[in-house]
Every structure is written in C-alpha cells, then in structure tokens.
C-alpha cells in the first residue's frame, strides 16, 4: 500500500512535527508532501523520506517570509499529485487537510487545530495592533473570511478526523460539523525523565514565539513576583518580545532536545500562559518531574491536574498568572506522580492508537465517513 503524508510546512521540530515523526515510524516508506521545507530543520527520521514541496517553496524570500504567502496555501495544497496513493494522512493545522486524495484512497486527517487565524484568533495574528488598521480591515479580514469558507468546505475531503485533544474535537465539530476520534500526541517519556537536580528559583517557557502563545503575559507575571524567566524557542514575535522584556528575562533561542530536557529539570515550574490546542510542553515537563502553571483552558485542562501536577489559573491576565506563580512556589510536588501523569500521553500509546485508527479506516466500506 502506497502512503502519502501531508504536512503544512517543515521548519522546525514542534508538536506537529513530532506527530509527523510518529507517522513516519508507522509508515517508513511513505512519501511526504509539504508547502515549504527548510532542510535540516526537522529530525533525520523525517528528512530521510522523499519530501516534495509546493510551488510556495520556490517563491522569492519564501525561506524567511513563507507565511506571507498564506492566500496561496489553498491552491498549493490542492496541487499535490496524490494519484499513486491508497492512503493519505494529513497532519494539519492550516491547509494540509485540503489535499485532494484520489477516489480510491482513504484520507485520515490528524488535526492539530482548524485554521486558527481564519476562525477564532484573527485579532492575535492580523488585528489592527499587529498589521495596522487599514491592512487588517481591508486586506486581511476579507482574505481570512474567504479562507474560513474554504476551510469548512474542504472538510468533506477527509474520510476521518483525528483530534489531538477533546478541545480540538470540539472545534472540529463546531467548524466542520464532523465527529473526531481523539488520539493525544506522542510524548517521549523515555527521553524526558527526572534527574536528581535541585531546581533553580526561576520559571521556564518552551514555545514558538508567535502571538497566540501570550508570552508577554508570562514576562509580566514573572516581573510582578520578582522571578527570573528563561524562554526557549524562536519565531516571528521574538524582536517584539525582546523589546518588552525586563532584565530577568533570558531568550535562549532554539536548543537541542538534550538542552531543553536540562532546562525542564532546572525550572521551578514550566509556564503555559496561552490557550493551547493540546500542548506537548506541559507533558514533557511533567515527565521530567516538574510542575506546570497553565491557563486552565484548551488542552492544559486535559494534561494538568490542579494541585497535583501543577497549577491552573482562570483568566489570561498578569495578576492571575502571578498569583498562580506564588501558589506553585508554595506547593510540594511528587516527581513520581508527575511522571505517572505524563505516561498517559506516551509515544507507545500514541503509535498503537493511530495504528488502530488507520486499520479501522482502511477496513471500512468505501466512502465511509466518520
């Protein structure tokens, strides 16, 4: 059976790419299709596959500004030649799920999220404060409204949706009117494990530096309680965030997995200030025996147990997060309990559940949609 894996873009190893890596393990001979590929940015397990890119990859300055070509993503994803394949698996948070599979093929979409900026996070990405009032109103709003209509219309191309959390399953039901099977993303609980290290009195964020992550909230809260903050990651928001950061905020940029594991182990707690669809970072932190302070919405409500594996705060405000930082500093956490919680999301469990979903989908009568 020939298998095609579709992923929005390959520019780094974040949660979505770790799902793709697991799919590569399940289908070692699969071909990968992606809008844009920055060579060397993802793991060897992904890079060793045959990777085909869209025309966006060849456009001027795509290596730096490929997100600027957002209006072209629909046509780019639809032009992938998938005729030779019997199974298409898309790993999608943007346009990958709209790839056109041949009539005889089954299409399973592992959905990290319906397109965030087209549905409920327009202001965070393209609001007046980000791009200017005129551009937001007269260019981006009509473009994103059209993308939302296209995103909903192309959901019918998928035979089965798999959601990375109950939160995302709800969004799939709301925006696509489809029921999704829930399979949590894979977390390498073998690699991420506790060590006999005394944590420092500082907090940690591991995140892409993009608007919806709300990293300015973490900086403001740490400043209120007089605590240091270390930020691992990179992205288009880095310059803006650095300009707002105080002296106790350290930007570490991209780190190796080994370096990130060490940062987890040395943190007093790991912070998740924004609403996540799932959020692999809180689980990796718990696997390393460290508690998490997270906004109690979205995926964090499924991965963090308040008072046992971390602290949840109710409102995305600096005052609420600062109070949560004070609380987590007073509590004592059992590293064994934290690790046991993380094991619920192990890589082995993810692989088995995805294997079962794919086998069930392929065995169903032709044309079956869930």
Helical amount: 40-55%
* Assigned CATH architecture of the largest domain: 3-Layer(aba) Sandwich
Count of domains: 2
The order of strands across the largest sheet is 3-2-1-4-5-6-7
Task: Compute the separation of the termini in Å.
Answer: 22 Å
Number of helices: 17
- Portion of residues in beta strands equals 15-25%
Number of strands: 13
* Rg result: 20 Å
Question: What would you say this structure looks like, in words?
Answer:
It is a single chain. With 370 residues, this protein is α/β, with parallel strands linked by helices. It is 40% helix and 17% strand. It contains 17 helices and 13 strands. Helix 9 (166-176) links the parallel strand 6 and strand 7. It is globular, with a radius of gyration of 20 Å. It starts with a strand and ends in a 7-residue tail after the last helix.
Which descriptors would you attach to this protein?
Rossmann fold, globular, 2 domains, alpha/beta, 17 helices, 370 residues, 40% helix, seven-stranded parallel beta sheet, single chain, six-stranded parallel beta sheet
Give the helix/strand layout:
Blueprint: E1 3-10, H1 15-26, E2 31-37, H2 44-47, E3 51-53, H3 62-65, H4 73-78, E4 87-92, E5 106-111, H5 116-119, H6 122-126, H7 128-131, H8 133-153, E6 160-163, H9 166-176, E7 180-182, E8 202-206, H10 215-225, E9 228-232, H11 238-244, E10 249-253, H12 257-266, E11 269-272, H13 280-287, E12 292-295, H14 300-303, E13 310-313, H15 318-330, H16 335-342, H17 347-363
